[in-house]
Design goal:
The chain is an alpha/beta fold and 542 residues long. It has 17 helices and 16 strands.
Length: 542
């Protein structure tokens, strides 16, 4: 009779060879007898054999020739480029056990899978080489401005956005960091101003009345975009003005009335623009278009109220977006960013018809940059400083430009004092500095006067960091959006190389974000929880 599960009987062939050989040698069993093996032992032996077979299979896979997508300190957890992880699979993660203290010292690294930034990839063969700037129908004066900026062929977001915005539609323009979004919105909107000459102001001594407005979250970004806009506008004879706060009312008046008068394009921060409107130095009745650049930063609680006040002064409701005749007076709204916050559509709905916005998104939106090396190191908090000093040991001497991110202004200041003690020349940039102290700091870093900048996320939004070769997340970012913006400081359009990012992971809540990043990297998918569309209403109570 066949033995039951509890009968613990098994034939001789199921006995391990070592036990069988021993028994035969000792003559313990008479001929024809049956050797019985406990069921629990049988199951344990079978599971052990399965584990050994699985380990051999993983070792064979790891030994298969080919480049790696993810390199781990433990080779069995490395993932080759050719390996595909299904959408519903749960891949083994290096960071799975990083909440345990024994994981300190562990690391993994995402390897670059391509050399050039996705924004510079050639269009599909069916589209030939894609339209050039001239073939898009831009004004000759703007083409001359592009030549001054040494800009060649359009990037992916520029090929997508310029034709759509030239048709006059209000739009959400969402693209990865460092992809050329500034030119993507400036070129078509300036082209619209040139195609419709402005009527002379009735009162030249009255408030400034620009026809184009760009709202930006920081004075550094306003200065950078202002320099690009000025280079484009100079051949066309258009005037550009930047308006930043930090001073008294007289300072704002002087900025707006500085010669030459009658600026067509105004760039400003929310606080400065609101103050100018309240003091009646500025009027927005002639606006043809308004741009909200770095929309997620503008939706911060410190900017939300000034931004709503600015939009309330603009003639948005009378110029609802959509197809129109050539003589229609309206204000075109363009919202630009790499990530978008919840609540954006609700805020815009107060002033314009968001349902008629066109959404322009690139294929690599919300994806980790495939051309940038990204390393994650699990550390104790007290080990971060030695690791950072080791990274900086040869960096400045070799001319490598380094950006070090901290989560708070106090950490920026503290780390700056430590670098001073180690005789490492650096600059600091954080939002609690006075306007006078911040003036020129980032410009000096861009020029290469100093090769190390310690900063908060103030420097992670929109700023041109094409000279940066290394980003160090001394404090791990608090959100996935912040991580995308920080990693986007390297490998930008115009950069000499793809660069690298090193992130120190110290807290248990940091590990939760790292697991999401590692999972997205292994599945070659976008980061979770980020929606690029503002047309979808936020769920009630969400």
């Amino acid at each position: 009779m066949a033995p039951g599960r509890r009968g613990v009987a098994a034939a001789v062939p199921l006995l391990p060879r070592r036990l069988a050989a021993t028994g035969a040698a000792a003559g313990a069993q008479p001929p024809g007898s049956v050797v019985r093996v406990p069921w629990a032992l049988r199951v344990r032996l079978q599971r052990g054999a399965q584990r050994r077979q699985r380990g051999q299979g993983e070792a064979a896979a790891a030994a298969r020739p080919g480049k790696l997508l993810l390199r781990s300190r433990r080779p069995e957890l490395s993932q080759p480029r050719w390996q595909t992880v299904g959408r519903w699979e749960r891949p083994p993660l290096v960071s799975a056990g990083w909440k345990h203290r024994k994981a300190r010292g562990d690391y993994f690294q995402l390897e670059p899978s391509q050399e050039a930034a996705p924004a510079l990839e050639a269009p599909p063969p069916a589209a030939r080489q894609g339209p050039s700037f001239a073939e898009m129908g831009l004004q000759p004066a703007l083409l001359a401005g592009l030549a001054r900026l040494s800009v060649g062929r359009p990037t992916a977001v520029q090929r997508l956005a310029i034709p759509a915005l030239r048709r006059g539609r209000s739009a959400l323009c969402a693209a990865e960091t460092g992809s050329g979004k500034t030119l993507a919105y400036l070129l078509p909107l300036l082209d619209g101003l040139l195609s419709r000459p402005a009527e002379p102001l009735a009162d030249a001594a009255g408030p400034a009345s620009p026809r184009g407005l760009v709202v930006l979250p920081s004075r550094e970004l306003a200065a950078q975009v202002g320099a690009v806009a000025a280079a484009l506008c100079r051949p066309a004879g258009l005037q550009v003005r930047a308006l930043t706060g930090g001073g008294a009312a007289g300072g704002l008046r002087r900025q707006l009335r500085a010669p030459p008068p009658g600026a067509a394009v105004l760039l400003g921060t929310p606080g400065a623009l609101r103050a100018a409107l309240r003091w009646r130095f500025l009027a927005l009745g002639r606006l043809r278009w308004v741009v909200l650049d770095e929309a997620d930063a503008l939706m911060d609680e410190s900017f939300a109220e000034p931004l709503e006040e600015i939009l309330a002064h603009a003639p948005l409701a009378a110029g609802a977006p959509g197809p129109a005749g050539p003589d229609e007076a309206r204000t075109q709204v363009v919202v630009v960013g790499a990530t978008f916050p919840t609540g954006l559509s609700e805020m815009l709905e107060k002033f314009t018809d968001v349902g008629r916005f066109v959404t322009l998104t690139t294929q690599n939106l919300h994806r980790l940059p495939p051309h940038v090396q990204q390393k994650f190191v699990r550390l104790k908090g007290q080990d971060k400083l030695p690791e950072l000093l080791q990274l900086l040991k040869d960096g400045p001497a070799s001319g490598r430009t380094v950006l070090i991110f901290c989560n708070t202004a106090s950490t920026v200041n503290w780390l700056g004092y430590i670098l001073d003690d180690h005789k490492i020349k650096h600059l600091r940039l954080q939002g609690q500095m006075s306007a006078a102290a911040r003036a020129g700091i980032f410009a000096s870093f861009q020029k290469g006067d100093v090769s190390v900048l310690v900063c908060t996320d103030l420097a992670s939004r929109g700023l041109d960091t094409s000279s940066v070769q290394l980003v160090v997340n001394y404090d791990f970012p608090e959100t996935l959006q912040d991580y995308l913006h920080r990693v986007g400081r390297v490998g930008r359009v115009g950069s000499k190389g793809p660069g690298a990012v090193v992130s120190f992971v110290t807290h248990r809540w940091d590990v939760d974000l790292v697991r999401k990043i590692e999972t997205a990297a292994r599945k070659k998918s976008g980061l979770p929880g980020m929606d690029s569309s503002i047309n979808k209403p936020t769920p009630k109570g969400g």
